[in-house]
Amino acid sequence: MFLLSCLGDFILSAVAAVGFAMTFSVPVKLLKHCALLGGIGHSFRFMMMKAGLSIEWSTLFAAMLIGVLGICFSRHYLAHPKVVTVAAIIPMVPGVYAYKAMISLVELSHLGYSSDLMDIFVTYSLRAAFITGALSIGLSIPGIWLYRRHPSV
Prior knowledge:
Blueprint: H1 2-23, H2 28-50, H3 55-77, H4 81-89, H5 95-111, H6 115-146
Helix pairs in contact: 1-2, 1-4, 2-3, 2-4, 3-4, 3-6, 5-6
């Protein structure tokens, strides 16, 4: 059952990554790599979350994996790494958390202050911010690490 869930997660995130890659006008020969990276990254995050890691840390490690694999693909196809990696991380953007934060903010505005609504707003806002930060940091670390001009020690 777990493998079936991972496969479904892989396929759905690969489709989303290809859709965003087409929106960003990625060359046709790189679309399959965007799909592969999107599926691998999201499935890796899914597996780490099932293993007990939080979504923020799972997102950071999955974005780092996408960054490293994107650099490998880009060297082979002589393209910039961002061509394949940006579309691949889009399926991991925290849309549900941002949506729930905005809904709680609208309810705070409409119904007035409530400590429960404020708690929901702060929780979901911080979670969305940390996931977005993990995506950006995780995507940039492999480039900084692999393109060093000086020794790492």
